[in-house]
Specification:
Length: about 170
C-alpha cells in the first residue's frame, strides 16, 4: 500500500496574517472586560474615601448646629420645641469634591444640653449610600469675648454659647 501526498504549490500569501488576526481578536474578546474591572484594593480605597467624606459631612452638620444655636435661628427648622430636624441635600464635603446629603436632628434645642445627631451620606457605586453619624452632646456656657475697638480691647459677655465637651462626643456608623 502506498500513500501518496500531493502538495500543490500556489499562492498562500497573507494566510498567516489572517490566522494571527483571528487569534488576536479571540484573545481581545476575553481579555478586555477584565481590564475594566476594579481590583478589590481600589474598591476598598474608594469605600474608605467615601466614609471619610461622609464623616466630614456629619461634622459639617454639627458645626452648622453650633452656629445656628449661637447666632442663627433654629426655630425655622422642622419640628417642635423638643426636637428639630434639618436636611441639606447635595452639599459638597469640606476640602473634597464629594457631594452628599446631611441629616441633622437636635433633641432639646432650648435646653442646657442639646443632643445633636448629624448623619452624612455620600453616593457609592453600589445602590446603597455610605454614611457616617456623629452624636454630640452640647453644653451651654458663658464665654468672655474680647474685641478690639481702635486701641482698646472691649470685654463683653455674650449670650450663652454652645461648646462641645470632649468627653461627650460619640461616633457611630450604620
Amino acid at each position: 500500500m502506498k500513500v501518496i501526498i500531493k502538495i500543490e504549490r500556489g499562492r498562500k500569501d497573507g494566510s498567516i496574517l489572517i490566522i494571527g488576526m483571528a487569534i488576536l481578536s479571540f484573545l481581545l474578546v476575553f481579555a478586555v472586560p477584565h481590564l475594566f474591572q476594579q481590583s478589590p484594593e481600589n474598591k476598598v480605597t474608594d469605600k474608605s474615601a467615601n466614609y471619610s467624606a461622609a464623616l466630614s459631612l456629619a461634622e459639617a452638620g454639627v458645626e452648622r448646629v453650633i452656629w445656628e444655636l449661637n447666632y442663627g435661628d433654629i426655630s425655622t427648622w422642622k419640628g417642635d420645641s423638643t426636637s428639630r430636624t434639618l436636611t441639606i441635600s447635595s452639599y459638597q464635603a469640606p476640602a473634597s469634591d464629594v457631594i452628599g446629603d446631611i441629616e441633622i436632628r437636635v433633641e432639646d434645642p432650648d435646653g442646657e444640653s442639646p443632643q445633636v445627631k448629624s448623619t452624612g451620606r455620600v453616593a457609592y457605586t453600589s445602590p446603597l449610600a455610605e454614611g457616617k453619624t456623629a452624636r454630640v452632646y452640647l453644653e451651654r456656657t458663658t464665654r468672655v469675648e474680647l474685641e478690639r475697638n481702635g486701641y482698646n480691647w472691649v470685654c463683653s459677655f455674650p449670650q450663652k454659647q454652645i461648646q462641645i465637651p470632649a468627653s461627650r462626643v460619640q461616633g457611630s456608623t450604620f
